[in-house]
Design a protein that fits this description.
single chain; 525 residues; mainly alpha; two-stranded antiparallel ribbon; disordered N terminus
């Protein structure tokens, strides 16, 4: 019977005419020999040798064979249990043949775990995924037949998985997304969080706390795939059934999960991050991180450091601080001072402008803010408005009016005589960084009177709103936050212009007016 083309299981012909056994048959034969008789234990070296093959198919077949082999050996109890002596020490002492065999198998098992961890860094994703899945199969088998002294959970295997995922040289996001399936198991999640913390400390200290973009991105990706339970009753899905009472097992207690979650994130945020990562992290902070922490106020140091980065990162850091102030009773008197100092001409031109004014509106929504503070924000916004583009002004002017509505004590800024009426020295100090010392409450809104003569009619109309008594109902600025220059021009072009009576015929086209000299002599009719 002729073999099908491409069948790797057939015996191939060598150049000398003798048959050559395929790698599949070789691996399968050696696996069966090891499982059939202890005298063939040395065949394990050959099987493990295939885990270092350069050929993808050989590698995948060898990985699967190792799963079959070591799961069976674990189930049979062929691995030494307890503190494993070094391999050179096995022949020393009065050990019987059984112990020596079990120690030998245990060392080969450790070699297999280490080689599978290396396979997780292979260039082919199929190899990576297969190595990951086999390691988790071995973890399950070892959990059912423990070989460690420190408990039933196979920490050495899970540690190999975590080290493989947190590569320093390669983006592992695709493999991490595959691992998310295992993180849904409560015991795996709990122990992984502890191993991540240990891994971060080791890697960052070895690299003298330098920024490691690839490694830190892998850590961040792995951290963000962890979905924490919100109630103790949700902790029911385990990789392994624990022999001890569940209430005595840390992996089954919500408070221990949250403690591990706290420690993991705080260790990660302890070190300097790539600038781009600050934005990613701060965007999810209030939704995915703070609600799952035992003590969210421990994030104060990170948020304070993030504010110093500048730009959008500073704004997002203030958002995190605002959540801590309002939801977790954090006392942070510098908050509004930091927000005040973020107001500069650049906020009108950056891509995060809409988010800035959306958050600023939320931060200033409380009616319990002191009048001097609100006046400082009103005055600073008014001064910056003098050089702002029309799209920004259509946001800023309604925001100023809303602030005055919320704080009637600031209406004095509207009614006080201004530079438009009499010679006036504005007491407001724009360069002052402390809103309490800038003198805003003694000033006036002459800037808005100036903007009433703005070249854009919508801006001029918005600025004239302060000439009339302000209604109690605030204006909704949400629709204006994303307004672009193109949309503003398009809106103006679509608006219907009013016809104005004139003393001459409006031009309808070239050389078509019979009352013009050129039209009379050069008419196209």
């Amino acid at each position: 019977m002729m073999a099908a083309p491409g069948d790797d299981n057939v015996k191939e012909k060598r150049s000398d005419g003798r048959s050559r056994t395929s790698y599949k048959e070789t691996i399968r034969t050696k696996t069966e020999l090891v499982l059939h008789s202890r005298k063939h234990a040395n065949e394990l070296f050959d099987v493990l040798q295939y885990l270092q093959s350069d050929k993808e198919k050989e590698l995948i077949f060898a990985i699967n064979a190792c799963q079959t082999l070591f799961c069976a050996l674990l189930e049979r109890g062929d691995l030494y249990v307890g503190q494993l002596p070094k391999e050179a020490e096995i022949l020393e002492g009065n050990r019987n043949v059984e112990e020596k065999y079990q120690m030998f198998i245990r060392h080969r098992y450790n070699d297999c775990v280490e080689l599978l961890q290396d396979c997780m860094g292979h260039e082919a994703y199929q190899v990576k995924e297969r190595a990951l899945c086999v390691l988790m199969k071995l973890a399950t088998a070892e959990g059912q037949h423990p070989v460690q002294d420190q408990g039933d959970f196979p920490l050495n295997v899970i540690q190999a998985v975590v080290c493989g995922l947190l590569s320093e040289k390669e983006d592992m996001s695709l493999l991490i997304s595959r691992f998310q399936e295992f993180l849904e198991m409560d015991d795996v999640r709990y122990y992984v969080m502890g191993l991540i913390r240990t891994n971060i400390n080791r890697v960052m200290d070895q690299n003298r706390q330098a920024v490691l973009p690839i490694y830190q991105n892998n850590v961040f990706t792995l951290l963000t795939t962890i979905n924490m339970p919100s109630q103790a009753s949700e902790i029911t899905n385990f990789l392994l059934k624990q022999k001890t009472a569940q209430e005595d097992w840390k992996a089954a207690r919500l408070k221990d999960h949250k403690r591990a979650f706290d420690q993991m994130w705080l260790i990660f945020l302890k070190y300097k991050l790539p600038t781009s990562m600050y934005k990613k992290l701060l965007v999810i902070l209030h939704d995915s991180i703070l609600p799952n922490m035992n003590n969210p106020t421990l994030m104060i140091d990170f948020l304070t450091a993030a504010y110093d980065v500048g730009g959008a990162v500073s704004l997002l850091a203030l958002n995190g601080l605002f959540v801590l102030i309002h939801e977790h009773n954090l006392n942070y008197p510098e908050f509004y001072k930091k927000l005040y100092n973020l107001l500069d001409p650049s906020v009108f031109h950056v891509k995060f402008r809409a988010r800035f004014f959306h958050l600023a509106n939320i931060f200033l929504s409380s009616s319990h803010l002191p009048a001097y503070l609100v006046a400082a924000f009103i005055k600073r916004l008014s001064r910056l408005a003098l050089t702002a583009p029309p799209t920004a002004l259509l946001i800023v002017l309604p925001l100023i009016c809303n602030l005055i509505r919320r704080h009637p004590s600031c209406r004095v800024l509207i009614h006080r005589p201004s530079a438009a009426d009499v010679p006036y020295n504005d007491p407001y100090v724009m360069e002052e960084r402390d809103p309490a010392q800038c003198g805003a409450l003694e000033s006036s809104l002459w800037e808005l009177q100036t903007l009433q003569s703005h070249y854009h009619p919508d801006v001029a109309m918005a600025a004239k709103a302060i000439n009339q008594p302000l209604s109690e109902l605030e204006e909704d600025i949400s629709e204006l936050l994303e307004l672009s220059t193109f949309e503003l021009m398009e809106r103006d072009l679509k608006s219907q212009s009013q016809s104005v009576p004139v003393e001459f015929d409006p031009i309808r086209g070239l050389l078509q007016s019979s009352r013009e000299v050129v039209g009379v002599h050069f008419s196209l009719e």
